[in-house]
## 1
Amino acid sequence: MRRVIIVLLPLGVPIQAQAFQLDIGKVKDLVTHAGQLRDVSEKEEVEIGSGISSNLLGAAPLVPDANVQKYVNLIGSWVAQQSERSNLEWHFGVLDTNDVNAFATPGGYVFITKGLLLKMQTEAELAGVLGHEIGHVLKKHHLKAIEKNAQVGLFADALSIAAQSGKNTAAFTKVVGIGTELYARGLDKEDEFEADRIGVVLAARAGYDPYGLPLVLQTLANLNPQDSSLALMFKTHPAPTARLEALGKEMTVLDRYAAQPELATRFVKTLDSKQEIKK
Amino acid sequence: MACAADYGYTLTSTELKDAPFTDAKTLATLPEQTKVEIILRQGAWWQVKKEQTGWVRLLSLRVGEGKAAVGDSGLKSLVNVGLGRGADTGLTIATGVRGLSDADLKNAHPNPRELQKLRNMAVPPAEAQKFASNAKLNAQQINYLPEPAATPAAGSGNPAMFGGGR
């Protein structure tokens, strides 16, 4: 199907070129002989991810509590170190919103909302949720979805801009905008199931009870789906019960790790000492 | 301690076992949506009571009732909006939660200052390792779980997306 690209591209270029000062030479450079868009470099992936992260932070800022942010970064970094992309520069942030959700953007940015954090009871639950988001980054789920949704010429142009770290151009802004909107629509549900399978394994590799993530899903399954704080997450993810059923079939091989620490005490102590974030 | 809830509901038809093992004797088969009392968690199992006491797999239940009270709902939390934020955010209670609805995401503007703050919060890997070893978390070698056989082939794509290039 992608082979069509090479035919359409010359037709598409004049419009794009006008709108975004497209450098046709660069686009040709980005499209391989097979008609495939070449692989996005790690630098480009990080640039796109940081642009989307900046937008997410425009929708909800960070919780103004350095200790809680550091705690989440320590757990997230440790879990990410158990992955095949441990050398990425990982960033973790708690967003100041009562919405219940978590996000990952390309290149190693992971966000969890205050609303979701306060529904958890143990560090193993946090590790599992961060592991799920890390899984999206490992598999480049969002990057691939952006590529699929942006017109090829536009995406190629944005990539060449990202490669030069020039971010204030129309094409880059447009692609980042498409990327941000993706978070309002959600990924393919198979991507979510895959991230769940990765999340429980990363938590277990990090030495935690791997059932943290399923326990969070059990909590979510019991909340009122009409609750406004759940609207976006329920719209963009398969139902928690469907995720539990999917994991249930695969997770038995991790049972031998189910006695690993949950660290409820460290989790509760860190959050309880911060009464202000509980408002 | 691990279990704050008192009740759970079976997600599907579930075997009640007399011990927390897959090959333990099956005491009964609980139909979908059976309400059970949760006694405790042991590894990948809940000990539950439904006429008789037995064990069901951790993922076979939707944990109910007791747990729902643990977190506030978003609506209940509305009254507290603004208390946890600095005065300089310019938010007021009247504007409600500055949340993450579809519209909020579509209309979001970049916030480079917060992004820089996020970058400054990154911890060195060695510090994270120390934090883990302080809590006796031991790294394990474990393979990723296989893709379920029933999953439709990935990467089917959306050909229509490329139709607009002309």
## 2
Amino acid sequence: MSDLLQYQNINTISKQQMTKNKQIPNSKKKSSIWSLIIAYGLFLVSYLLFISPVFAQQINLSISPPHLEVVIKPGKSILVAYTVQNLGDPVVIIPKVLPFVPKDNQGNITIQEDFEGPIRFALDNADLQLDKPFFLKSQAAQQLLLRMRIPDGAPEWDYYYTFFVETQPFPGTEGVTSSQAQARIGSNILATVTQTGVFNVKGRVAFFDVIPRFKLGKNINIFDSSDQIPIVLILENNGKNLFKPEGNIVLSGIFGEKAKYDILPQNILAGSQRVVLASPSAQLNCDLPKNNQEVKLCQNPLSLLLSGFFAGRYTLSAEINFGDNSPTNFFASTSFIGLPFKFLLGLLVVIIAAVILVRRLQKD
Amino acid sequence: MKNFVFCFIVLLFAFCFLHLNKAIADNLSGPNYKIQFSNISSGGAPASSSNYNIYTSLGQSAAQQFSSTGYLLRAGIKYLYSIAPFSFSLSATNINFGTLIPNSFSNQTTDLTVSFSSAQGYQVTAMEKDKLKTLDGANNIPDTSCDSGCLISSAGTWSLATNNGFGYNMGNLNGNSDVPADFSSSSKFRPFANLASGDSAQIVMSASPNISSNKYHNSNRKSRLTFQISVSTTQAAGTYQTVVRFTAIPKY
């Protein structure tokens, strides 16, 4: 019996203690809630701060230098250091050299799929070879030492190549229809092979004219006085070597006023044409063309765009030198007439409106 | 007569004020500023005699012809428009179309970004190595011919999913006008040029040295390529895959 009482006492005491334990003061409850909130807050902040966002596999490569021109004798070789940098995810890349041909008259090219030409290319890096893949980790750069060797007896001509690196595409996801993207980034090499250092330059002006708003007959180009005057100058290279034209386009008005625009020295490759640029030029906003004329202009490559108020007959003349080895200057000219159509139309509207207004006033 | 003269003068003034255009001076700049060449030289010109040619540039570092017996390497204003790197990025390389539902479109995108410092511009071409094919090559998804015809070089409207195929659309992202003009809306598509069929790669993005465009920011020129695919109800089940090659090159 006493044992039972003792057990009941013990039980009662322990229950009281448990009740005591359960009765936590309100202040302690609040502080524990707050500490929970703070803990969760800290967790959330650290999660947001330290967890980097997840992106899809991406490629980001750069190459330097982006362009190379070399004049070289047969039997010689040179070494060019390229730097390829990987700013994206780790990639396996393959360095290659392929020839290219000009695609159009705007400096675009078509890379040929098969190597041709006498120039021999190789990498001087001890551990890397052309057409062999290598791994480039993220944020890493690799110097590629490209050796160009011109064999003895190589024909004296221009040879155009693109040195590029291409990524190996990642394997597709199994069981999912997909397309893998492969990236190539390249740098053009313009090589002139010459024994004597004398270049074969045969240039000509293939086209020099304005794109008129109206045309009378074959030769009379007419613009509204407030129109911008678009000019196209296309040069052609029929020689064996590239050249860089120099010169200017001169605008002459009927009262002897003149304005000169310099031609920018761009490469005209052997056997190609190119629309050359002159500066300073007015500009168009091709994203938001205002009228059909502007749409037309945005679809055409232009050499120069003149802005101003043109009244009367103007002459445009181009004087061009086809580079250092070209002894003579070449000339071409065209002309246009600026007439104030819009102004005259406005004047007519004003006169008619004035007549109507006066008649009404007289009636009143 | 007095009234007429008075009215005429008032209306003429009104007309003149309405007709006034904003005066814009000719300039060398774009929205942020553009100089065609990346370095302003204070002088320099070619000179020659019977035994030598020499090219000089003042006000520019490391710009000259580097030569030795038998070769001549040209670097600098006259020869290289920039020594700054040319870069290209693709935002996604694994373009998963998931499970295809017959006669409904599935679309995926990747963003193309180019940074160049050359005044000559750049080009990006695209071509597929072959049609979307099963791994054994027995079945393929045809390249699109759009709703009423489109080619690898000219886009056409493709809005009917019952016209099955695989194609792409291009759109400018940051105010450039670098994608071909035939991608005039998001419903214009082209089939990819096909390397296996002997097609030549097509330009999908370029900055021509076109002085009529005032958008000549040389960094981060961005566009979005949208892949679109639709299969027929009779398309054989399987996993179809291909590789699309993008080539980014500065202009010469």
